[in-house]
Recover the amino acids of this structure.
């Protein structure tokens, strides 16, 4: 199985900060990497697919990059509604997916 | 609009089975797959498996093989996930999600609101 490791596990930041979350795969997954945002009590929401493609309706302050084993999710200027938990997910193994353990983004 | 509506919360005893439904609307059901994802209290997301709504093909997470069955009813655009021999660590919120293929990449773009399954004696 492909293992996905996110860092950090938690992060404190302020409104307006630039934030980067990292996701590392245990083997090369090309660009088969998706990012989701989850708020407490809510279903996950797709932000980025194929490592860097912004899902329709997602603000442009969110961006993704990387390929192979190392990926990043960047929020260019944190807004109050961005405080949530973020998950990466690999889709390289077709229909045999794995998620990272999550990164909780909290208000400083 | 595209949506997935899941069945209501369930409370089950250890050893029992649960069957969660996920009714799709707003799109052609058979043109996409459905993935199931669960989340134990305070924990992260765990992918459980996938079913093609086109032909019923399935893939299951290895740890759930033998206990989980995913099916679809194309006449009602509904997907089902059945989990047997329930244990306390199956207590979780269970999500269905539309599994989409675009430009060679798979991702889950629409999610149900979740179904809470509690396993307790």
């Amino acid at each position: 199985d492909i293992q996905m490791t996110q860092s950090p596990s938690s992060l404190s930041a302020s409104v307006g900060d630039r934030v980067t979350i990292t996701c590392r795969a245990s083997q090369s997954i090309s660009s088969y990497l998706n990012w989701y945002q989850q708020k407490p009590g809510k279903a996950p929401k797709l932000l980025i697919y194929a490592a860097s493609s912004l899902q329709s309706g997602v603000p442009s302050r969110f961006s993704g990059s990387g390929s192979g084993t190392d990926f990043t999710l960047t929020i260019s200027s944190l807004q109050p509604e961005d405080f949530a938990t973020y998950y990466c997910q690999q889709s390289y193994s077709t229909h045999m997916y794995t998620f990272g353990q999550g990164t909780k983004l909290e208000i400083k | 609009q595209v949506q997935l509506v899941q069945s209501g919360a369930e409370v089950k005893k250890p050893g029992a089975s649960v069957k969660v439904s996920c009714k799709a609307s707003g799109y052609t059901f058979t043109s996409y797959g459905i993935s199931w994802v669960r989340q134990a209290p305070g924990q992260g997301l765990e992918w459980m498996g996938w079913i093609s709504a086109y032909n019923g093909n399935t893939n299951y997470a290895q740890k759930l093989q033998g206990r989980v069955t995913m099916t679809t009813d194309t006449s009602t655009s509904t997907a089902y996930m059945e989990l047997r021999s329930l244990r306390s660590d199956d207590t979780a919120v269970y999500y269905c999600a539309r599994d989409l293929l675009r430009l060679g990449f798979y991702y889950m773009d629409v999610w149900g609101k979740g179904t809470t399954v509690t396993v307790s004696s």
Notes: DSSP finds no helices and eleven strands in chain A.
